[in-house]
Amino acid sequence: MNNLNEKIGFIGAGNMATALISGLINSNFSPTKIIASSPEKEHLQKLSEAFKINTCNDNQEIINKADIIILAVKPNIIEEVINEIKISIKQKNILLISIAAGIKIEKIETLLGVDQRIIRAMPNTPASIMEGVTALCSNNSALSEDVAKARILFECAGKVTEINETNIDIFTALIGSGPAYIFYLIEAMLESSRNLKLPEEEKVNLISAMIAGSANLAKNSQDSPEVLREKVTSPGGVTQKAIEEFEKYGMKEIIKKCMDEAEKKSIELGEK
User: Fold this and answer.
1) Which of 62, 55, 74 minimizes the C-alpha distance to 14?
2) What's the rounded Cα separation, in Å, for the pair 235 and 162?
3) Is 159 within 8 Å of 132 (Cβ atoms)?
4) DSSP state, 38?
5) What's the CATH number where 214 sits?
6) Does residue 95 lie in a domain region?
7) What pLDDT score was predicted for residue 49?
8) Residue 1 — very low, low, confident or very high, per pLDDT cuts 50/70/90?
9) What pTM value is reported for the model?
10) Are 26 and 128 part of one and the same domain?
11) Measuring CA to CA, which residue among 11, 14, 26 is closest to residue 155?
12) Listed residue (45, 17, 143, 125) closest to 9, CA to CA
């Protein structure tokens, strides 16, 4: 685990926390060094059973026992949670990592009311199978070794990049929310596959394999996505007909519009 010996505390035990914990455990991080808190007993029970980590329903206990805190709560309760733990955080030299969507570092600093080492991270759910993508940005109080520790943590769950916080809203819209768009595409393709007489599970596997293979080709090829598409699109062929339909309905403009609206929503969450 790249010599990371700190204890990791999760405040919040929802889907993203679960994905990250899964990634850590799958990377051989000791479950005895992970503790998670949540008011939802069912979430904690699932985490305890699945990963054998320590759990509690007291955020103060997380502060007391962990060296690195991952704030994994919904944006609408971030203020409530920070107000609960800020005194304890002030009394302990602790690294705070927030994965709350849309919440700016400046807001966390204001709520804490004290200089604190803060890193903002935006992961996505494929972290649960160590295929996630995470963006990191930090405040002026965070040390280079803090960023290095955060990178080690999130590299357990996939690829990590460091960005300026001014870019994190578009990153959230494009990459953080991106898996949902792919799942939506799979749903649509499944609904369109009614004439393919195969079991549903097999169709899901085939479509998923096609998307994964295409993504890997785009990643590893010297050709641009446009050139790769053109190589599949024979004049007058089946693929060209489908592309023509996409273009007739303005598919690229729809996607651009969706990205713009998702970015606006991320900005809106940060301004509340």
Assistant:
1) 74
2) 42
3) yes
4) -
5) 1.10.3730.10
6) yes
7) 92
8) very low
9) 0.86
10) yes
11) 26
12) 17
